[in-house]
Amino acid sequence: MSSAVLAYLDHNATSPLRPVAFDAMAEALKAGGNPSSVHRAGRAARGRIDQARRQVAALVGAMPSEVIFTSGGTEANNLAITGTGCQRVLASSVEHDSVLKAAPDVERIPVDSTGVIVLGELERMLAASPVPTLVSVMFANNETGVLQPIAEVVRLARKTGALVHCDAVQGAGKAEVELHGLGVDYLSVSAHKFGGPTGIGALVVRGNAPFVTDRRGGGQEANRRAGTENVAGIAGFGAAASAARNGLDVLALRERLETALLKTAPQAQVFGADAKRLANTVCISMPGVRAETQVMALDLAGVCVSAGAACSSGKVTRSAVLTAMGVDSAVADTAVRISFGWNTEAEDIERLIAAWQDLYIRVQNSDIVRDRAA
Ligand code: PLP
Q1: Alpha carbon distance 156, 127 (integer Å)
Q2: Which residue has the higher pLDDT, 51 or 364?
Q3: 81 and 165 Cβ atoms separated by less than 8 Å
Q4: Which end of the chain, N or C, is surrounded by fewer C-beta atoms within 10 Å?
Q5: Count of Cβ atoms closer than 10 Å to residue 158 Cβ
């Protein structure tokens, strides 16, 4: 964002709305109409949904008929975990809570110190029980950007007949994410992570994969998600999906940022640095400075980043992701997440670097500001 007022570097929380998405939404809102109505206003609304379905399908390498619109990534994950009919769910220990809390007894697949799942453990867990099993592994982690070896997960799952769900909420629009290319059965996406509106997403279900919905009501979304569709949200989702098809070209920005911060504070740690990661995400510690302190100081300097996993209450809790990676709790408490998006520019990065360096140097020189994480 090339505004002198704000360097917004929290795209993994939510990305600003793309102008094309705004326009598509405004048009849909002005036009109105219930897509289930047979008159022309209804048919026009249906047309917007059909177009958006094609746009979203194109973004995630799926057929339009495989896209089920939902209220976002959370609902898509919930529906996937509960809708397959599997008795057993294995999920990586760094999944989003909308996966981990979606079933009572989700068994956690451990990750190594880089944040990548331990495939040998998955293999052992799959072999441990013959009951129908769903494996849920995310495409990219929301805090570290670490990518998971989905092709390997699918290969191991297929050996035992298990189904595979992939939460691609942080991957779609940033890297190439394809339902059929990845070979998974279910894929979750959310519009607001790549410039669409909040409150809209999709569960993409491979053609003949089992899926039983828990929504009761009308026959919308081919009987898979009852309720009058959010036409404006869907239209904005589709427009953003089209605009996001080229992914993000931000690797040089990430390299510039990491090099500058590590030069300033050589003891700083970039979490997941040794794994394949999204180019838009940097999770980094500032030695001895708690994440909340950093977030507030950076905010005062006009830079928006986030501390660990900011939950819906706005409270900062210790990152479960870093904990699962075996990061020492005192170090985990000093980690902030910086994430770029479609409108990030070099000057945003320079502004962050200057503010981060300024804070770090002030802390080094002052016992008063010093705020050692216990
Ligand atoms: N999955 C991941 C990996 C996420 O990062 C998020 C949101 O932060 C979600 C799911 C939930 O998506 P939504 O905010 O659309 O409900």
Answers
A1: 10
A2: 51
A3: yes
A4: C
A5: 12
**Complete DSSP assignment for 128-169:** H--S-EEEE--SB-TTT-BBP-HHHHHHHHHHHT-EEEEE-T
Residue range(s) in the chain whose domain bears CATH number 3.90.1150.10: 3-15+248-373
- Cβ count within 10 A of residue 58: 14
Is residue 339 within 8 A of residue 9, CB to CB? The reply is yes
Ligand 1: distance of its center to the CA of 73 in Å? 5
Q: CA 255 → CA 94, 208, 212, 372, distances in Å?
A: 25, 42, 44, 28
Note the pLDDT of residue 374: 39
Kindly report the protein residue whose alpha carbon is nearest to atom 12 of ligand 1.
73
Task: Check: CB of residue 202 under 8 Å from CB of residue 56.
Answer: yes
Express each pLDDT in 33-48 by its tens digit. 999 999 999 999 999 9
* Model pLDDT, residue 315: 63
CATH for 19-243 is: 3.40.640.10
Which residue puts its alpha carbon closest to atom 8 of ligand 1? 13
Please give the Cα distance from 95 to 148 (Å, whole number). 11
Place of tokens 């979606």: 102
For the Cβ of 234 lying below 6 angstroms from any atom of ligand 1, the answer is no
Q: Other CB atoms closer than 10 Å to residue 127's CB: what's the count?
A: 11
Q: Are strands 88-92 and 107-109 parallel, antiparallel or unpaired?
A: parallel
Residue closest via CA to ligand 1's atom 5 equals 142
3-state class (DSSP) for residue 10: strand
CATH no. of 3-15+248-373:
3.90.1150.10
- The residues assigned a catalytic role are 311
Q: CATH 3.40.640.10: which residues of the chain?
A: 19-243
Percentage of the chain beyond pLDDT 90 is 92
Strands of the 306-307 sheet, one edge to the other: 281-285, 335-339, 306-307
Distance CA 140, CA 147 (A): 4
Q: 116-151: per-residue pLDDT in tens?
A: 999 999 999 999 999 999 999 999 999 999 999 999
Distance CA 23, CA 28 (A): 9
- The distance from CA 235 to its chain's CA centroid, rounded to whole angstroms, is 20
